[in-house]
Design brief:
This protein is of the alpha/beta class. It has one domain: Rossmann fold (3-Layer(aba) Sandwich), CATH 3.40.50. It has 10 helices and 9 strands. The chain has helices at residues 3-17, 27-34, 50-53, 71-77, 89-102, 140-149, 170-176, 189-192, 195-203, 214-224; strands at 60-64, 81-86, 106-110, 124-129, 150-161, 187-188, 210-211, 226-234, 248-255. It has a 7-stranded mixed β-sheet, with helices on both faces. Strand 4, helix 6 (140-149) and strand 5 form a beta-alpha-beta unit. Helix 6 (140-149) runs parallel beside helix 10 (214-224). The longest helix has 15 residues, at 3-17. It is globular.
């Protein structure tokens, strides 16, 4: 099956149903940023350290697989030249709505995060890449493309799931509040779900996911040419696994 096409329409559906990752920031949020408040996140709770970004004014920022009218408008309100790239047209529509509403300069581009061929080499100063590479199978291509389109000394800010999230049976997790180990890493909905569960997910228009190893996530960035210059972990406050460990990883990688 064409997972990219499926997930495109699945995320359009998430917009229509009001998923929290599709709800745009408010005009008040934008004004607070213009007044000097710093609110950039790559994970549920912790702010990205200010020194990871520095003075963003006038810099070219690519918000990669980051539609939804959330972080892209905040970067624009900070004075950056922002391009939001996402697979979902409706997610991009949220950024376009905020840009029009609050008079922000935001460019949008629809496409698969593994193919940034619409952009030339050395085009961006910063790439902001929140938790989203779980929706594609081959993340090596994502890291390679990020390296190509970043300028020398450019910064890649990425958030992604700790792969331990994907070893558990999600039905047991969400419906019975039990942590039952079921799957191996690397994980794939397409390969490891039963035919019945996969068919149900496709029928319901649910995004299909992949659980990537830390070697693919962190080692993949290094293999692409990046130097890892920052790292921290975070969690969702009400997540079942959070009582035992953090579940989200954030990295800062630099192109040298």
């Amino acid at each position: 099956m064409n997972v990219s096409e499926h997930n495109k329409y699945a995320w359009d559906k998430e917009v229509n149903t009001g998923c929290q990752w599709t709800v745009p920031v408010t005009s008040d949020d934008i004004q607070r940023v213009k007044d000097g408040e710093y609110t950039i996140k790559l994970s549920p709770c912790k702010l990205v350290p200010k020194e990871w970004i520095g003075d963003i004014t006038g810099k070219k920022v690519l918000c990669l697989a980051s539609g939804g009218g959330q972080q892209g408008p905040l970067f624009a309100a900070m004075g950056a030249d922002v391009t939001v790239f996402d697979n979902s047209p409706l997610q991009l529509g949220q950024d376009e709505m905020v840009a029009k509403r609050d008079y922000l300069n935001i460019h949008t581009q629809q496409g698969d995060m593994r193919d940034l061929s619409v952009f030339p080499d050395n085009a961006f100063d910063v790439i902001y890449h929140p938790i989203s590479n779980c929706f594609v199978e081959d993340i090596g291509r994502v890291w390679a493309e990020c390296y190509r389109v970043l300028k020398r000394h450019g910064v890649l800010l990425s958030g992604f799931w700790n792969p331990i999230n994907y070893i558990f049976d999600m039905d047991e997790w969400y419906n019975k509040k039990n942590l039952v180990i079921r799957y191996s890493i690397p994980y794939s909905d397409v390969v490891q779900l039963s035919e019945e569960k996969l068919a149900e997910a496709v029928r319901n228009g649910e995004p299909l996911e992949f659980g990537h190893s830390l070697e693919s996530q962190i080692g993949g960035q290094i293999k692409a040419g990046f130097i890892i210059g920052g790292f921290y972990e975070d969690s969702f406050e009400d997540d079942l696994l959070t009582q035992y460990m953090d579940t989200v990883i954030v990295t800062k990688a630099v192109k040298l």
